[in-house]
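Lab meeting, action items carried over

1. Structure of the three-component assembly. Owner: GW. Status: complete.
Input record:
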Amino acid sequence: MKKPSLLLEMAARRQTPVLLIVSLWVLFRGHNHPGGGFIGGLLAAGGLGFYSLTYGPKATRRYMRIDPIRLIGIGCLTALGAGLMGWLGGLPFLTGIWTDLPLIGKVGTPLLFDIGVYLTVIGAAVSMLHAFEEA
Amino acid sequence: MEPFWAVIVGVLFAAAVYMLLRRHLAKLAIGLILLSNAANLLILSAPGLVRGRPDFVPEGAQVLGPGHADPLPQALILTAIVIGFGVLAFFLALMRRVFLEVSDLDVEMLKE
Amino acid sequence: MNPHLVLPLIIPLATAMILFVTGRRGNRAAVIGLIGFAGLFGAGVSLLIRVASSGIMATGPGNWSAPYGITLVADNLSALMVAITGLMGLMVFIYSLYGEMRGNDDGGFYALFHVLLMGVCGAFLAGDIFNLYVWFEVMLIASFVLLARGRSRLEMIASVKYVVMNLVSSGIFLIGIGLLYAKVGSLNMADIAVKLSESEADARLVLSTGMLFLVAFGIKAAVFPLYFWLPSSYHAPPLAVSAIFSALLTKVGVYSLIRTFTLIFNQDQAFSSRLLLVIAGLTMVMGGLGAIAQTDIRRILSFHIISQIGYMIMGLALMTPLGIAGAMLHMVHNIIVKTNLFLISGIIAHHGRGAYRIEQLGGLYRHKPLLALLFLVPAFSLAGFPPLSGFFTKYLLIQAGLETRSWLISGIALAVAMLTLVSMTKIWNHAFWKRAPETFEPMKTPVRLWLPAATLASLSVSIGLAAEPIFEFGRQTAGQLLEPEGYIEAVLGGR
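Predicted assembly:
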């Protein structure tokens, strides 16, 4: 693929990590504040999409170190695992379980579910984008 | 507010049906987009529109008071928008492939 | 909490996602997929046994009780459909292990197949009308991708038609949901039923929304006059895909019609029943006549899907216990037999070097007598010969028609059975009795191909022989559907 413009290249290299970090922040502030896995995932996918517009799908997959489709699978399984945890606790499937941890605060299965959604959204959005770019 | 809304939804549906009946696949796609958006707006206005009363539970209360906007339709449209977005993206990709294969997007080519 | 309701959804999802992680092609993927379907079938059967022994079950995932959270419900009908779905998944999956039948490029096939069946099971178990929509979409998206995987012109054209019609149908479904919510203020089907029966609303106003649902589900179920997309898309994809589509997708539409018209839109039964009867009659006739005009085996079978859908709608339209029982059992019979015929048509084409047009086939009776026998069982069953399953379910439907003095529809049902026989005879004459074409060379049928076909054929025979207990089950189901108090109690009573 042809060499991207210098500006785009610099912007993508700086901006993608920033967007990834912001997406994590949005992910973790979710639940009680606006944010959460879906929006966080879209933000991260936006950053990765920017990267892949600049350097192409192959470089993006290298940058991600994982095949986006595999990421969908991991995300869905994480979310499913979060659902199953409530179930193993004798409650209906997908019931949230919360515990208080010192220092961190309230942690529960919905957070795990959100992380699963986050990964799935990144995987799905990036692989859709790649499908368009590579077709 | 609702009558105005009803007109908007009606116009969107009319436009959607008009576009769905065109001969060009891209116009068909626009028709589908309009159709899904019209349906979303219809759901939004379904429980009655409330102005300036967002569905936040007030400080100290356990449930929403009366007269607030109904949160459920908003959740429904969120789902419907995401689904519609995905499916339409798929349709556009399909259209692109059809174009690369048949190099024509007139619906005539759908005849075998 | 009971696991039976959730497992049919978790198992295919988990299998598909494990396939995404561990790699989507090759032998390992096939083994994982097979285990997944065996698990789904097991879960379906255990659900069926539980529901048959202890009545309707409902659960609210996330510990949100109905009508606030979403609900999963299984009555006899849902449980039976889930079990059959699992069986069909397993059978068609075994069949699809033979590469030619799934389109040789198998990237994503196994995973998508699981996602498709998750959508189907979800639609059968949903107790919430919006949830039903979501499951429909899951199913549709998987089916879109399965259909559009192929790169040939035929497949692409077929996918465009299929995708557009289904998107329009989803749009209409969504509009219906919006209007229903506006009228009732609830999405839980049992809750809607209660609220509608208590409200003073004009029955015609409710039915106007019902008509939107009729159109939306009618497109999915391929009833007259909305069936035209089906024969122009089902013959295009690789055979395993056509087989599972014909087995399940239209039946989800029929199931949704049965569910909504027995539970929610039952205010003005005289009107909806008359309308459905007209639709049923025309669907049968158009499907039957369409099949006669075709020469491609898959297209003949596609038109027969339509004519058989007519029978199911007829049973629903009659709204008598016998009619509903007949509709449900006919649905089960049809899923088995139609899948079986599709599988066998694949074997026929396998021997005919990929030809599906009947003129290009021949000589199979001489060279493959067992295959001929295998074809005769579902073919006669579809046409309704005793003692096979089709005879028994058609007998129920026609008797239900005669009991309600609906002479015309019963006559049509009998006549269309003859039409079915005519087109089955056509396949028989060309593919089996005619002299083999010059290029024919006999070869073995792989076990992966004949085993599922033979299993389904024997199932059709045993349904016909064990008609008595199955009929009892059907009657019980019809009771549950026509007097939805039990259903409402199970959902809203909270367990």
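2. GW to write a short summary for the group page. Key points so far: Residues 268-484 of chain C form one domain. Residues 153-184 of chain C form the longest helix (32 residues).
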